[in-house]
Amino acid sequence: MAKTCSRRQLEIVNKLLLDEMTSRGQMENDAYCQSLALDIAAGNGNLTRVKQLCEPHLNQPLAHNNSVRYGLAIPVVRASNAGHKKVTDYLYYNHYKIALPLVLKKDNDVYWATCLLLDAIFYGFLDIALDIIKHLPSVAVTEHARQRLPIYKFIAVKPDLFRSHCNFGFWRHLIYSCIRVSENPRPNRDNRLFCMTLPQSLLKWLGIKQIYELKDSHCKARSLLQKMSTSLRDIMAKNEIRWKETVYEALLEAVESGNREFFIEIIKCDSQLLWISNPTSGRNLFQLAVEFKKEKIFNLIHGLDDRKVTLLRSYDKGNNNILHIAGRLSTPDQLSKISGAALKMQRESQWFKEVESLVSEREVVQKNEDKKTPRQIFEHYHEPLRKEGEEWMKYTATACSFVAALIATVTFQAIFTVPGGIDGTSGSPLILNDLHFRAFIFTDTLAFFASCISVLIFLSILTSRYSFDDFIVSLPRKMILGQSILFISIASMLVAFITSLSASMRHKPALVYPLKPLASFPSLLFLMLQYPLLKEMISSTYGKRLFYRDTKNWLP
Description:
The structure is a single chain. The protein has helices at 7-23, 31-44, 47-54, 65-69, 75-81, 85-96, 107-123, 126-135, 151-156, 170-178, 189-196, 200-206, 208-236, 241-257, 260-269, 285-291, 295-298, 307-313, 322-326, 332-335, 341-356, 361-365, 374-415, 435-462, 474-504, 516-519, 521-542. It is mainly alpha-helical. Helix 13 (208-236) runs parallel beside helix 15 and helix 14 runs antiparallel to helix 15.
């Protein structure tokens, strides 16, 4: 049925089946029918029907052995696996939470508790995940034979659960820092009062409600990780080889995913984990952070003591030091997050320069087993990207310089063809004292000189050397300046046009009023189309630094 019906049709079939079973009264005496009905209702997220079926057993543990006996998942796991938050909350807090102390007595129950924990983490039901860990801390470090992914490895590849994964602007960062949330698993009265102090529509429009929910989720995720780390610390103290291998794999996954909070918390469990390496390449954790271009992980090296010197000077199996690794091109997945070949080249150069500033002169000139220095590696792998960036810069500069030259030509001609005409005797404009005319003279002159300046800037881009280092600051700075001045020239030209029209039609100004809003449309369109790229270029060149050297010790 699932293969021949659409999802909506399947839901209708399930509902009809459920209604038929209920109307015939089959569920009262038939455990299979009751289990199947509850399974269908929970899987469809039908909270009303779930309550109807579970009402006789309110605040009592459901006999989910029947579900397992008939090859069905227990209802709370069925609901959580489908992502139904309300149904999962109802079943867990009213029927399954009270049975948690008995879970560890049965292997099958441990498996279902682990499934529920994984679903809760995946869908963000972190209040349930925290409650499970609170009552069953050992579940975090329990591997079931039917479990495909250990819980620790699952969290390692979920950096979006934590604060460091979010890049807020100024306004959202300010709101986030001012919000206070409770660390209790379930929202308390104080949390609800926060969202009731202002109208819900205003909270949503300002983004405050979403940021509050996000911070609440971050706090719960952090608390969940700390509780799980406590259990992990205890089991690692027993020196179990199997769990050490699992933790090693999870830590390597965390580096590849850029999960900063997970990385710090696990290393704090055992500082010796800092020295583990990838068994295939022989690269340590910070070399892997450079390989995958995870700056949030790499920045942590500044918070280490003398151990960072050893980590920076180590070599992989190919006799590559960390600067050799930085010289290699990022993966397509990493480069796809950056728009424009020039900005991609800028990001790659920034990484190489940052790593180069941390190593000694010996590592800068050292050769690997292929007899190549880090600089040679960098130039070899980035030459195609440099050429692509050069073409992108030249194409953009050529197009913009053409527009700027056109504006310069038009505004130069307009200044000698003044509106209102010229006095034949004195040669002075007839409307010299008109305010609109004076505004026209000023804006037209501004548009002319701004376009001339932007042409010169774009000309300097076209004649640049396009070396690797030029992409770090020099070329982006010229492009930012050129496009900004070009926007000024476009806006000034449009204002000059409308003021010239107002001066010519000064006796009938009503005819000009409807045209004034149209004058802003081309400049706004230019701003809308170019602003995303211009904003990214300004941010990557002058904004918040990609790397920050926080020397505060995070590892005792």
